[in-house]
From TrEMBL:
Residues 28-229 form the Alanine racemase N-terminal domain. It comes from the Bacteria. The modification N6-(pyridoxal phosphate)lysine is found at residue 36. Its cofactor is pyridoxal 5'-phosphate. PROSITE patterns: UPF0001. HAMAP family: PLP_homeostasis (MF_02087). GO terms for molecular function: pyridoxal phosphate binding. Belongs to the pyridoxal phosphate-binding protein YggS/PROSC family. SUPFAM superfamilies: PLP-binding barrel. Pfam families: Ala_racemase_N. It comes from Thioalkalivibrio paradoxus ARh 1. CDD domains: PLPDE_III_Yggs_like. This is Pyridoxal phosphate homeostasis protein.
Length: 237
């Protein structure tokens, strides 16, 4: 696990360096450790280093890890971010366990999550996923449909709309990497001028977190740079 500590420190070094470059306070960027396909001992080892936020993509895998880590409760408590695609028949498991959901791109999924959120829990914090490439079939709401979706989601009592998320096509060119992140920030700011109170940009992964932070990311979702490469297949829900 010494390797994990080295990687964790390195990711924080990258975040801090980029924040200095951007004139941002490093505490304005939160790290989500994307633990999909990773084991429970890897999660607890990272938590022992001080990592609190974890991201999972597959419902079944998320539930299994959540159950395994629920008791004895870790201190400080884990914060779970569901960052994968969510099907209608799997919303309840997430509504009952997650702290955040990042991939909301349809009202009916948001409505189900709101209805299924237990009253004993605080509202589920959500980001709307935006498809900035315009490719049909890709996850995310189209830009043209974002405002009406945001307006409808903001009304749901079981949810709290926090911001926007995007997952652009990978690029190794820093200027190219920044373009969709800049666009997401513009959309975020525009929603705020229309009366929303968003404070979250979930953008940036292992290969492009610098570009995302330079454009205003507040949550970066990092897997490979922390844990090493995943198996090609990953784990399916
Ligand atoms: C897997 C995944 C990540 C992490 O990607 P890395 O390149 O391994 O850092 C981030 N966000 C989402 C939505 C993912 O599915």
């Amino acid at each position: 696990m010494a390797q994990l500590e080295t990687c964790w420190n390195e990711v924080h070094r990258r975040i801090d360096k980029t924040c200095r470059q951007a004139g941002r306070d490093p505490s304005s960027v939160r790290l989500i450790a994307v633990s999909k396909t990773r084991t429970v001992p890897e999660i607890t080892a990272l938590h022992a280093l001080g990592q609190q936020r974890f991201g999972e993509n597959y419902v079944q895998e998320f539930v299994a890890k959540w159950e395994a880590l629920a008791l004895p409760a870790l201190e400080p408590p884990l914060e779970w971010h569901f960052i994968g695609a969510l099907q209608r028949n799997k919303t309840r498991a997430v509504a009952e366990r997650a702290d955040w959901v990042h991939g909301i791109d349809r009202l009916n999924i948001a409505q189900r999550l709101s209805k299924q959120r237990p009253d004993s829990h605080p509202p589920l914090q959500v980001c709307l996923q935006v498809n900035l490439s315009g490719e049909p079939g890709k996850a995310g709401v189209a830009e043209a449909d974002l405002e009406p979706l945001a307006a409808a989601v903001a009304e749901l009592p079981g949810l709290r709309l926090r911001g926007l998320m995007t997952l652009p096509a990978p690029s190794t060119d820093p200027a190219e990497q920044r373009r969709p992140f800049r666009r997401l920030r513009e959309l975020h700011d525009r929603l705020n001028t229309r009366g929303h109170r968003l404070d979250t940009l979930s953008m940036g992964m292992s290969g492009d977190l610098e570009a995302a932070i330079l454009e205003g990311a507040t949550l970066v979702r990092v897997g490979t740079a922390l844990f090493g490469p995943r198996n090609a297949q990953g784990t399916q829900a």
